[in-house]
Design brief:
Blueprint: E1 5-7, H1 15-29, H2 42-59, H3 68-100, H4 104-112, E2 117-119, E3 132-137, E4 147-152, E5 165-172, E6 181-186, E7 190-193, E8 203-212, E9 215-216, E10 223-226
Antiparallel strand pairs: 1-2, 3-4, 4-7, 5-6, 5-8, 8-9, 8-10
Helix pairs in contact: 1-2, 1-3, 2-3, 3-4
Length: 230
């Protein structure tokens, strides 16, 4: 998931929408434990909202507009309110990031309690499927006792970032995955292993488990490898 960023899509000249946004933010943030010290204060934002509402009334309805001076006054007060809302949005963004850290789902959840909307929010990937094309990569550049494993990201993964890591499991054949031990975690789609060697234990089974926002994904099929003790 991309980092959620507050999106303010209301134009300063859309006076009624600007007032509505300000009121929604005040209602959402009043008593909200996530935002105990709003800056600017909610009281000052409310004062700016009231000033815009009064200026709208003086400017009048369509077909019964006031003077150019009243329009200029409305524009000035709307600009002030817009700037205060932007400052409040920055406060919300910073506060949510401090509270959630790199957990962007938690950050988005905190932001949405403020009355602001967040951009870059995408649905979670859900439980990841097993990795694709998991195999033992054979190369003359590898030593006889090295095992290079390669794979591709899980099927239907929206973006590479939806996979936080891959955990490699290993066990001596013919043991099952249930007793395999994790030997490494990586963000890459390849790994070189150097298993311990003995005359009685040259055959190994490997599995890959992808991890995403929903936790561990589906276990891959096993790759069986025989290494050399030469």
């Amino acid at each position: 998931m991309a980092k959620p960023i507050i999106a303010i899509k209301v134009r300063t000249t859309n006076y009624a929408a600007l007032v509505n946004l300000g009121n929604r933010i005040i209602v959402s943030m009043t008593g909200n434990a996530n935002f105990s010290t709003p800056a600017p204060t909610l009281l000052s934002v409310q004062t700016a909202i009231t000033a815009v509402e009064n200026a709208i009334a003086v400017w009048g309805s369509k077909g019964n507009r006031g003077s150019h001076a009243s329009l200029s006054d409305l524009r000035e007060k709307a600009l002030t309110l817009s700037q205060m809302i932007k400052s409040l949005a920055q406060y919300v963004q910073n506060t949510a990031q401090t509270a959630a850290g790199s957990n962007y789902f938690a950050m988005a959840a905190i932001i949405t309690t403020s009355g602001f909307s967040a951009a870059n929010i995408k649905s979670p990937q859900g439980v990841l499927q097993k990795v694709q094309n998991f195999h033992n990569f054979v190369s003359r550049k590898l030593n006889a006792n090295q095992v290079k494993l390669k794979w591709k990201k899980p099927l239907n993964t929206g973006t590479a970032g939806n996979v936080k890591s891959y955990t490699i499991y290993r066990v001596a054949q013919p043991s099952p995955f249930s007793i395999a031990m994790p030997i490494a975690t990586t963000t890459k789609t390849s790994y070189i292993d150097i298993p311990s060697l003995s005359s009685d234990n040259l055959k190994w089974s490997y599995w890959i488990v992808p991890t995403g926002a929903a936790g561990n994904g589906v276990v891959s099929d096993a790759v069986n490898v025989t290494v050399s003790n030469i």
